[in-house]
Amino acid sequence: MSEPTGGKNAIAVEDFLNVGREKLEIDVVAGRAGLSRRIDEAAVNRPGLALTGFYQYFAPRRIQVLGHAEMAYLNSLPAAERRARVQQLFEHHVPCLVMTRRHRMLPEIEELSETYRTPVLRTPLITKHFINAATIVMENLMAPRVTMQGTMVEILGLGVLLAGRAGVGKSETALALIKKGHSLVADDVTALRLDSSGVVIGAPVGVTRYHMEIRGLGIIHVPSLFGVASVRNEKKLDLIITLCSPDAISAEDRSGQAMRTRAVLGIEIPTIEIPVAPGRDVANIVEVAALDQMLKRLGHDAAKELDDKLIAVLAGGRKSDE
Questions:
Q1: What is the largest CA-CA distance in the chain?
Q2: Which of 209, 216, 233, 300 is the most exposed place for a label (fewest CB within 10 A)?
Q3: Are the C-beta atoms of residues 284 and 292 closer than 8 Å to each other?
Q4: Which one of 1.10.760.10, 3.40.50.300, 3.40.190.170, 3.40.50.10710 gives the CATH number of domain 145-305?
Q5: CA dist 36 to 196, 236, 309, Å?
Q6: What CATH architecture applies to the domain 11-142?
Q7: CA-CA distance, 138 to 41, in Å (whole number)?
Q8: How confident is the model over 13-71, as pLDDT tens digits?
């Protein structure tokens, strides 16, 4: 009995179970041997028509949800016909079944789930609530993602990734920002994903969540020292700031008008370089850079305004000379 193979962005049923166990209140009730099955599509399907024998537009690559209507229909069938309908569903190699409202497990479903190695999960949630929440979980799991070296912080609602070579002071700068009242998202390595709205979301790698490594001090637990408001589970990436040595900064454009961007998961993210040198308060500069980025979003570009004023003054001076 062959099992389907997953696509490029497919995830295992076990991953869906682990991530959604608390939020979706799901647990395995049968077919545990098939937890490695792959889910190819983020959408969730209710196989109502399929259970009647109509499979022309059936979506077998999705999680299949048996709600109140589906279970009532199956319970209304004679035992032999009910088994045939359920077996036909399992023969399409669906990744898993989820029974909502804690419906009683039908003997046919339990037996066939073991035969076809198809997991059956159960949740107390109402069907529509489960489908809405499960779709969000699946979209997050299947979203394109990448990891980047860097420490991410939230500054007044703006997600800022501090990049740069090892030892340049990313964590120390982030620590100074946390002491100023800003929040840590991730230290050292940041996991980035592209959500369905085209926004890049940054989050910590699970094992290092809420922790920072400070050279000479070691590992610290941020919320224990600064309170729960000092950390964020995830944040939209708005700006990348690269900390570098002073000689790495080009002198071609000191005005800051030539805004550079960096492609992250196909999205262009504004990026600037800030030189690190003894005596420089890098945390203050990063904070101001974030505030300046917020003003640019509102249409206020200080560098451009000054440039326009200088051009107007120079143009006025030429006219008076003439």
A1: 102
A2: 216
A3: no
A4: 3.40.50.300
A5: 25, 31, 64
A6: 3-Layer(aba) Sandwich (3.40)
A7: 8
A8: 999 999 999 899 999 999 999 999 999 999 999 999 999 999 999 999 999 999 999 99
